[in-house]
Amino acid sequence: MVKECGMKLLELIQKAPVTCSGNITLFPTSTFFPVRYNLFQYYFKPGGGKHFNVTFGRSVALHFWNKMSKNKTVKVNSNSVYEVAAKRFCPITYRTATTHSNVF
C-alpha cells in the first residue's frame, strides 16, 4: 500500500478510505471490525440492535470475536445486535435456530 499510494502507512490509515493507483482501496478498520474485541459484549446486549443501521451502516462485515463470544447465548426478541444481524442477513438460519427455542 505504501508503494502504491506514495504515503506512509500511518498517513494512509488516518485518511482511510483511500483509493490509490491500481484501483486499490484501504478501508478503515471499522468497515470490517466496527466493534473492538474488548467491547464484543455490545453485540449481545439486549436492545443494542435498536440503532443497527446507524451504528453499522458503513460496515461490510461484523466480527463477533468467536474465541471470546463462543459461549454467549442470545434470547429471541432481545433485539441485540447479534439477533438483528441474524434476522436480516441469515433469515433461514435464524428461523431454524429459533423455531423450538427461545435462545440461540
TrEMBL record:
<feature type="domain" description="Alpha 1,4-glycosyltransferase">
    <location>
        <begin position="3"/>
        <end position="96"/>
    </location>
</feature>
<comment type="similarity">
    <text>Belongs to the glycosyltransferase 32 family.</text>
</comment>
<protein>
    <submittedName>
        <fullName>Lactosylceramide 4-alpha-galactosyltransferase</fullName>
    </submittedName>
</protein>
<dbReference type="GO" id="GO:0016020">
    <property type="term" value="C:membrane"/>
</dbReference>
<dbReference type="Pfam" id="PF04572">
    <property type="entry name" value="Gb3_synth"/>
</dbReference>
<keyword id="KW-0808">Transferase</keyword>
<dbReference type="GO" id="GO:0016758">
    <property type="term" value="F:hexosyltransferase activity"/>
</dbReference>
<dbReference type="GO" id="GO:0006688">
    <property type="term" value="P:glycosphingolipid biosynthetic process"/>
</dbReference>
<dbReference type="InterPro" id="IPR051981">
    <property type="entry name" value="Glycosyltransf_32"/>
</dbReference>
<dbReference type="InterPro" id="IPR007652">
    <property type="entry name" value="A1-4-GlycosylTfrase_dom"/>
</dbReference>
